[in-house]
UniProtKB/TrEMBL annotation:
Pathway: Porphyrin-containing compound metabolism. Its main location: membrane. GO terms for cellular component: membrane. GO terms for biological process: heme A biosynthetic process. This is Heme A synthase. Keywords: Cell membrane, Disulfide bond, Heme biosynthesis, Iron, Membrane, Metal-binding, Oxidoreductase, Transmembrane, Transmembrane helix. It comes from Amycolatopsis balhimycina DSM 5908. It is found in: Membrane. It comes from the Bacteria. Pfam families: COX15-CtaA.
Amino acid sequence: MPFTSLVARLPFPSAAVQRAVGIAAVLAQALIGVTGSIVRVTGSGLGCPTWPECVAGSLVPVNHPGIHALNQWIEFGNRMLTGAVILVAAVAVVTAWRVQIDHPSRTRLVKLAWTMPGGVVLQAVVGGLTVLAKLEWWTVAIHFLATTPLVWLAVLLLRAFREGDEPARPLVPAAGRGILVALAVVMWLVLAAGTTVTGAGPHSGDLNTHRLAVPVEALAQVHGGLLVLYLLLLAVFGLHLMRIGAPKSLWRHYTVVWVVALAQGALGSLQYALGVPEAMVSFHVLGAMTVIVATASLWTAGRDRGPVTSLTAAPRELTAA
Ligand code: HEM
């Protein structure tokens, strides 16, 4: 395949490069959700009314009657980040591919890397449908929720760069694995419930978008209640870790989940009490992304795939074989 021989000519990515690419994938997937929310709450979707130019005659924001400079820069920044997400997705595929050329067993790594550009295409389609549906609240919710598995997959990719390809050996017994699955499911329920709160509140779509006709208070209670369930499961998982004498690394990831989930809960409660000020909405979305990253990291820390063998290039004669 001509592409393979092109990729094979690239230098082998060092351990530091592999790690940087994994981290960039996580950051790109998480931050695009945050900038999307900034565009939404500041009503900047039409800050750049044309594409690829921001305003007629200029690729970048310029003084334009009727469009506030801040809205232009916010929408322009979001476009730039979309470009960065595409670039990072492409770099992730090429890096994983280059690694696999020297280490043919690394097919899982390559598959995970391909989910990054796959996700960009999926989100482009969902985003287009959201605009066609005139930012109907449930389409905005789907657009947001579609990002969440991509953030999770990016964390798996980051981890895959530094682990082997043996079948996953759980570090916690079956009961603990069950709790981790329940924790992930409830996390997504918290996220989905959050989007219904947004759908009923003032920050869904634009001013004219029709809202979810359910009282915000009731939806916020369901959203907060699910967080309580999530924290209960987390506590039960902690007891389980104590009982099995879990390794330090698992405890470290576990503690991080507590810290980010509690901080996010506190932020959400404050935001609700203050009547959902716009600036806090984007911090809440950033917090939601951090919860996903922390939960996914705990998930990966709960299993072992053997030692990583692909941090350095294969010896020459093996490459040729
Ligand atoms: C781990 C904990 C939490 C997570 C992961 C989370 C996640 C989310 C998500 C994903 C959204 C939708 C954002 C969007 O569509 O742009 C949201 C909205 C919201 N959440 Fe949370 N949330 C958490 C805890 C809380 C708590 C404890 C409260 C307090 C009641 C709360 C209050 C809200 C409010 C008021 C909104 C609507 C904001 C708006 O108007 O757009 N959240 N949350």
